Amino acid sequence: MISEQAKKEIDLWVSKYPEGRGSSAVMQALTIVQKENGGSLNGDLMQAVADYLDMPAISVQEVATFYENYNHKPVGKHVIRFCHNISCMLNGSDELISYLEDKLEVKTGQVSKDGLVSVKKVECLGACVGGPMCQIGDQYHEHLTTNKLDKILEDLK
Ligand code: FES
To answer: Which reaction does it catalyse (predicted)?
Structure first.
């Protein structure tokens, strides 16, 4: 279930923690297997992470369902993680999310018909001064407008 390459990556993270504390690498392990699985987790993968890190499955599920980093349904090739917390909301995130939904013909949490994009509402990403903002992959996009979103979507194609 967990590839040899993913195990190597997980082992690297486990080695950063004291002996016997490998379960501390659970977030990295979930991130690695999620990425390898096309961007989402499932029950088998969470169980495999629990087995590999020798920790209770329920503890892995608690982490995987608490943090918004993890997806439990298939996602698009690119996930637009749109902050809708207070600073971003006051600066128009709700309107921009609606704009995206209309333009992509999807609702938040769904994947566009071409499989390219999914939109996810998330809580504060720590870039409040740049709101409204979103994260795509490792990149933050700040001070968003409809024009900027159009350009971002074009670039994703
Ligand atoms: S409120 Fe949006 S980044 Fe903090």
So the answer is: a quinone + NADH + 5 H(+)(in) = a quinol + NAD(+) + 4 H(+)(out)
Atom of ligand 1 nearest to the CA of 127: 3
Say yes or no: CB of residue 85 within 6 Å of ligand 1.
yes
149 CB less than 6 Å from ligand 1? no
pLDDT at 2 over 90: yes
Task: Report CA 31 to chain centroid distance, whole Å.
Answer: 9
Residue 43 CB neighbours (<10 A): 11
Tens-digit pLDDT profile for residues 64-74: 999 988 999 99
Q: What is the domain partition of the chain in residue ranges?
A: 4-66, 78-156
Q: Model confidence over 86-98: pLDDT tens digits?
A: 999 999 999 999 9
Helix 57-66 × helix 26-36 angle, to 10°:
70
78-156, which class in CATH? alpha beta
CB of 106 within 6 A of ligand 1: the answer is: no
